[in-house]
Specification:
Elements: H1 4-13, E1 28-43, E2 48-60, E3 74-77, E4 90-92, E5 97-100, E6 108-113, E7 117-130, E8 143-152, E9 160-164, E10 170-172, E11 182-196, E12 199-212, H2 214-220
Length: about 220
Amino acid sequence: MPSSQGKSLMAQLLKEYDKATKPSGGILDVQAEVTIQDISSISEISSSFIVDLWFSQIWADPRLAYSHLSCKSNLSLDESLVQKIWTPNLCFTNSQNTYIHSSPESNILLIIYSNGTVWLNHRIRVQGRCTMGDGFANFPLDTQSCFLVLESCGYPIAEVRLSWLNWNPVSVASEKLQLPDFRFVNLTYTRLLRRYNAGAFDQLKINFEFKRLYGYYVVQE
């Protein structure tokens, strides 16, 4: 929970704050960071996989700068404050299902730095898509690919430019991700541009590669 000093400071900053208005009059840069916590399953039936991850969005909102009001370098705030500020509304556009972990409270962390930098972090579970590319022609010696796609659900590139964090933007918390019938082989990430009728949008894509553990099927037989 934020301290009474933090609450008082935020109340002052939000007094004339309009959450419906983007921080910058021009194009706003938003960075993203993802840390993979666990991959619990891969389903050939639904062509999907389930991944638990920490997901951060970072941007600058000069309206929330408070270096002139306090000597505190940052404020750690609870999820109730997220509803009161502008956010870039990033979402996983290829997800079949997504929810925020709660243990017991929602796993959301909001940090606002004295210069107005906003760091919003969610711990979530995502059911993403897998390509199952070779049609299982090499089963059980096949390799399968799954992916996640991040995009702003409300702002085209004319308003928001989305990019990966400059350092270590996508990482894996554990060196050994345990799956019963697949071995995690590789992870890559890239930035793409997707055009819709509504305009062009930045996309951040994470690709996961898995090698099937054929010994699992030998044992099952």
